[in-house]
Prior knowledge:
65% of the residues lie in helices and 0% in strands. The chain contains five helices and no strands. The chain has helices at residues 12-16, 38-65, 72-98, 116-143, 147-170. The longest helix has 28 residues, at 38-65. The structure holds fe (ii) ion (2 copies).
Amino acid sequence: xxxxxxxxxxxxxxxxxxxxxxxxxxxxxxxxxxxxxxxxxxxxxxxxxxxxxxxxxxxxxxxxxxxxxxxxxxxxxxxxxxxxxxxxxxxxxxxxxxxxxxxxxxxxxxxxxxxxxxxxxxxxxxxxxxxxxxxxxxxxxxxxxxxxxxxxxxxxxxxxxxxxxxxxxxxxx
Length: 173
Ligand SMILES: [Fe+2]
Ligand SMILES: [Fe+2]
C-alpha cells in the first residue's frame, strides 16, 4: 500500500543509514544486467517464483509472531504484502508457462526471529533483494524482446518498491 511520507535524509537517521540494512530502494546498486538465453531466463524466473512463495510464507509467520502494540499497524500491512506476493507468484507462474517452461514449486528458506524489529529488517532485506532481481529481469526480458513479460515484471516491481517503503517507514529509516 502506497504511503506518502517525507524521508529523513540528514541527521541521526542518515548516520544510521550507513549500515547495509538501511539502504533505500532508490540507492540500490544497478549492475549491468547479465545476458541470458530464453532457457536461462526461465530458470531465473523460477528462482524468483521460489522467493515469492518464501515471502508469502515469511509475511504470514511474521504477522502472527510479531508482538507489541507499536507493531499493530505494520502487522496488518504484512498480511496485505503476503497476499500481493501470492499475486506475484501467480503472475510469474503464468509467464514461465507462456515462455515454454514448467513453473516450479520450490520455496526458498524463510527467515524468522524472536525480535519483532529484526523480523521487519529481514522483510526489508527480502524486498530490496526482490527489487534488484526484478530490475535485472526487466532488462533481460527487454533484451529477449519479451515485452509482455517485461510489462508483468514492471507491475511486480512497482509493488515491491511499495513494500520496501512500508517497511522503511515502520523501521523509521
Ligand atoms: Fe513479490
Ligand atoms: Fe514484496
